[in-house]
């Protein structure tokens, strides 16, 4: 499939609703980068020092511990992704990250304005807890899901273009976030974190309304769903949002297996007849 065919929506087999599927895959990477994950991933020591008020040595130690903690929950998400479903992981993951960032923003604001050392210490401890919880939720819900969903939602004809565009989007937004974070923390203080709070808040209904489930489905199943004219608001239908594979697809696959077995049997019978005919002719 060419880029022009993709932009027009696609017309070849497996390319139905190509542009819509392309945008859905690209959108996952956009939502990930606008969640604020890299504002803290790249600058967590800075966040802990400037916003939370920790000493540099402790901030760097907590950053190292958080990295190990992040890896653990990323593996947890990998093991449970088929049970949760892609859609569930993204929606609940974003909801959890939103709550963590909202609470973190409130805590950072409180810590920056209070003159009570005891309160500042407690607020700092709570802020660190929210950051660790944010990474746990993001690791389990989003770390691998964005990459997996992108490959599943795009058809075979457009998968390479969909994947390449998603990666390009991911790094472009990543670069923007990395460039603005130090400036934002320095000039906006606690208000900088409101950017990610609002981004996550608006991402939740987008995921709920527009993103169909791809877990436990063959790639051919997803092609069929879009070929049949999947509604824009997917939450209005049960089948596109359920984690369990729809029974009609299971029945279709069983029919395909039976048909394939029947064809193999017929080929074997024809071969036997051909051998018998040749043997009879030789005699």
UniProtKB/TrEMBL annotation:
Domain Major facilitator superfamily (MFS) profile: 1-215
Residues spanning the membrane: 21-43, 58-77, 89-108, 128-150, 162-186, 192-211
Main location: membrane
Keywords tagged on the record: Membrane, Transmembrane, Transmembrane helix
Coiled-coil annotated spans: none
PROSITE patterns xref list: MFS (PS50850), SUGAR_TRANSPORT_1 (PS00216)
Chain positions covered by the region annotation Disordered: 261-283
Gene Ontology terms for molecular function: carbohydrate:proton symporter activity
Segments of skewed composition (Basic and acidic residues): 268-283
Subcellular location: Membrane
Pfam families cross-referenced by the UniProt entry: Sugar_tr
InterPro entries in alphabetical order: MFS_dom (IPR020846), MFS_sugar_transport-like (IPR005828), MFS_Sugar_Transporters (IPR050360), MFS_trans_sf (IPR036259), Sugar_transporter_CS (IPR005829)
GO cellular component, one term: membrane
Domain of life: Eukaryota
Membrane topology: Multi-pass membrane protein
Family: Belongs to the major facilitator superfamily. Sugar transporter (TC 2.A.1.1) family.
The name this protein goes by in its record: Major facilitator superfamily (MFS) profile domain-containing protein
């Amino acid at each position: 499939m060419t880029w022009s065919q993709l932009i027009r929506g696609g017309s070849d087999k497996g390319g139905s609703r190509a542009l819509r599927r392309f945008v859905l895959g690209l959108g996952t990477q956009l939502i990930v980068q606008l969640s604020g994950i890299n504002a803290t991933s790249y600058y967590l020591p800075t966040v802990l020092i400037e916003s939370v008020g920790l000493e540099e040595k402790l901030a760097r130690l907590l950053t190292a511990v958080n990295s190990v903690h992040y890896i653990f929950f990323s593996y947890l998400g990998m093991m449970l992704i088929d049970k949760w479903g892609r859609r569930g992981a993204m929606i609940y993951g974003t909801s959890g990250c939103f709550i963590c960032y909202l609470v973190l923003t409130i805590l950072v604001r409180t810590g920056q304005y209070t003159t009570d050392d005891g309160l500042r210490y407690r607020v700092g401890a709570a802020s660190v807890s929210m950051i660790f919880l944010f990474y746990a939720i993001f690791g389990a819900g989003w770390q691998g899901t964005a990459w997996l969903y992108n490959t599943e939602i795009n058809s075979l004809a457009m998968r390479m273009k969909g994947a390449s565009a998603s990666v390009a989007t991911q790094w472009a937004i990543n670069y923007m976030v990395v460039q603005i974070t130090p400036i934002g923390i320095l000039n906006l203080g606690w208000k900088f974190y409101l950017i990610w709070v609002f981004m996550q808040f608006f991402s939740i209904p987008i995921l709920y309304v527009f993103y169909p489930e791809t877990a436990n489905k063959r790639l051919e199943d997803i092609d069929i769903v879009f070929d049949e004219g999947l509604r824009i608001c997917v939450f209005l239908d049960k089948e596109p949002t359920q984690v369990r594979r729809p029974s009609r697809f299971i029945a279709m696959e069983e029919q395909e297996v039976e048909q394939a077995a029947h064809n193999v049997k017929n080929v074997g019978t024809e071969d036997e007849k051909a051998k018998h005919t040749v043997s009879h002719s030789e005699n």
